[in-house]
Write a structure and sequence with these properties.
The chain has 235 residues and is of the alpha/beta class. The protein contains six helices and eleven strands.
């Protein structure tokens, strides 16, 4: 199976090709200009791997949460390639991909992933490795004040992501006594999106059409739930 993966949810832009377990990636940390970087990255990977676009079986992308502009870029490029090649899409949580990167580089099995969501909030998810070494979400992704994020119930957890860089003291206190250490200055990689997507496909789930390849906006979900609660309370 040949899989293209892209990830632009934060300050790093990357693309990767996964082919029957082998993966190559191009990665660059640059806060802006992802729309200009991404397509040349993909073309370079196609050339380097020798896997032409018609040989791709699926495309995966980091669906967020993350930068509003970043996740829109990833979704738009994904939709274009999916429509053009008539291949399915595998949306992958960017927080889950960050946790997969921690597992890949440090072998930690339980990760509290957090992105700085601005407005004194973080995008947050607890992720743990399954039997195949692939990170899985433990509960829902959320946007919360650092002092109100969900807590694990057991084990030792490492923190990673820009949310930890911004709010390390508050998050460390929130996770006590389950907190182990923080891994600083870590961004998502497309190669980790690819690993999660390939595993999901092997399990027979997760694929969607190009039209369904949409970003995840947690603040929109929170606003929608708040509006629904307000309407219900008045009826």
């Amino acid at each position: 199976m040949n899989l293209l993966a892209i990830e632009t949810s934060e300050a790093a832009c990357s693309a990767a090709i996964w082919s029957d377990g082998d993966v190559i990636e191009t990665y660059r940390e640059q806060p802006r200009g992802h729309s200009e970087l991404l397509l040349p990255m993909i073309d370079s990977l196609i050339s380097e791997s020798g896997i032409s676009k018609p040989r791709l079986d699926a495309i995966a992308f980091g669906r967020g949460p993350g930068s509003f502009t970043g996740v829109r870029i990833a979704a738009a490029v994904t939709q274009g390639i999916s429509f053009g090649l008539d291949i399915p899409v595998i949306p992958v949580s960017s927080l889950q991909a960050l946790a997969q990167g921690v597992c890949r580089t440090s072998a930690h099995q339980q990760v509290a992933a957090a992105f700085d969501a601005r407005m004194n909030e973080v995008y947050w998810a607890l992720c743990a490795a399954d039997a195949d070494g692939v990170m899985q979400l433990q509960g829902e992704e959320m946007v919360r004040a650092p002092g109100q994020v969900s807590q694990p119930q057991q084990g030792r957890w490492v923190g990673a992501g820009s949310g930890w860089d911004a709010y390390a003291e508050i998050l460390t206190e929130r996770l006590s006594p389950w907190f182990d250490q923080q891994i600083p200055h870590l961004y998502c990689h497309a190669q980790d999106v690819a690993v999660i997507a390939a595993h999901a496909l092997s399990q027979g789930d997760a694929a969607v059409t190009a039209a369904e390849a949409l970003p995840l906006y947690l603040r929109n979900n929170v606003a929608k739930k708040s509006l629904q609660s307000s309407v219900c309370s008045k009826t």
